[in-house]
Design goal:
By secondary structure, the chain is of the alpha+beta class. The chain folds into 3 domains: 55 residues, no CATH class; 103 residues, Orthogonal Bundle (DNA polymerase, domain 1); 152 residues, hpI Integrase, Chain A (Orthogonal Bundle), CATH 1.10.443.10. The chain is built from 14 helices and 7 strands. The chain has a 4-stranded antiparallel sheet with strand order 1-2-3-4, with helices on one face. Strand 2 and strand 3 form a beta hairpin.
């Protein structure tokens, strides 16, 4: 017997937006979620009940995506995560590339084939191998310190937090492994003496000398300096649209610092390499002068301590430096305290 013809589907709209179709009176959701087409029957004939079911779907569409028994593959999970980070967290291209290398290194381990396949023991084994130089994203492997291992573990944790939020996995093995203490505070921020940084700056090529002048003038992080654009320069200030804690800030700057920033941008700025090239040039210049090498970030420390000596209050300095917590800014107080102590104990009676 020939099959009876089915009723033709009719378009289903909610608030003027096409959300699916109606066939034989039943409302069916027909949408794309994260690039995948999802058709799901509401089981409702009543339009009001069907719209309620659609609203439930709209509140959490990812919860309706079916998951395979094997779990989401590691490479695909990494791609989705990085896309989300660029779109939501506004990560820089350089840091996104760093995260991609870190996730590829995790994925090279047999245990990390999917988001569900690894355990806490697998995470600890990888970190132990990284400490001994037996694993990692580098071509020339070597033992890694706590800061590097923490950075890689933090990337894994960020991926898994995102995946659980997207309901792609229920695996919480990463939460069982804690970040290790890096000994922050044991080595307080170092202020570079003025005679030293002036001597070093005279030995640098114009591009790198101007970069150091800007770091000393407004205390930027190197990544913020690399992201500097002409529209960020104001009369008497430098605007930072996005910092480490995602907040924008306006930093007072002298006319000399603004001029140096304009000249630096005219020369092409600095590469977003976390200060590696500038750091190398500073080290070469320091060793040629026979002084202890200092980094680009220590110029930021020098700016902070100079501001405190000039009378800038701690809360204002926190805003200038882009710190989330004032406890981070307080670490610069030791320089002021030490200098006052020397003046007091050295005074004759």
């Amino acid at each position: 017997m020939p099959r009876a013809p089915r009723d033709p589907a009719r378009i289903w709209k909610v608030a003027g937006r096409r959300v699916g179709f109606i066939r034989e009176g039943v409302h069916v959701i027909d949408r794309r979620v994260h690039g995948r087409r999802l058709k799901r029957s509401t089981g409702c004939i009543d339009p009001a009940a069907a719209e309620f079911e659609y609203r439930q779907f709209e509140a959490d569409p990812l919860g309706y995506l079916p998951r395979s028994r094997e779990g989401l593959g590691w490479p695909e999970a990494g791609k989705r995560f990085l896309r989300a980070q660029r779109a939501v967290a506004h990560n820089t291209e350089y840091w996104t590339e760093q995260q991609a290398r870190i996730l590829a290194s995790w994925g090279a381990r047999p245990a990390f084939t999917t988001l569900d396949s690894f355990s806490a023991a697998d995470v600890k084994a990888y970190l132990a191998d990284r400490a001994e130089g037996k694993a990692g994203p580098e071509k020339r492997r070597g033992p890694t310190g706590r800061a590097t291992r923490n950075r890689e573990l933090a990337t894994l944790k960020a991926l898994m937090r995102w995946a659980r939020g997207e309901r792609l996995t229920a695996n919480r093995a990463d939460e069982e492994v804690k970040l290790v203490r890096e000994g922050h505070g044991k080595n307080p921020p170092r202020e570079v003496p003025e005679r030293q940084w002036r001597a070093v700056l005279r030995r640098l090529l114009p591009r790198w000398r101007l970069a150091c002048e800007v770091l000393l003038g407004v205390g930027l992080r190197y990544g913020e300096l690399a992201a500097l654009r002409p529209e960020h320069l104001r009369a008497g200030a430098v605007f930072v649209p996005e910092s480490k804690n995602r907040d924008a800030r306006l930093i007072p700057a002298s006319a000399r610092t603004v001029r140096a920033a304009r000249k630096l941008l005219a020369l092409g700025g600095v590469p977003p390499d976390l200060g590696a090239q500038l750091g190398d040039r500073l080290e070469v210049a320091c060793r040629a002068l026979g002084i202890r090498p200092f980094s680009a970030h220590e110029l930021r420390h020098t700016y902070a301590t100079a501001c405190l000596r000039a009378g800038v209050d701690l809360e204002h300095l926190r805003t200038r430096l882009g710190h989330r917590s004032i406890l981070t800014t307080q670490k610069y107080l030791h320089v002021i305290t030490a200098s006052r102590r020397r003046q007091t104990t050295g005074a004759p009676l």
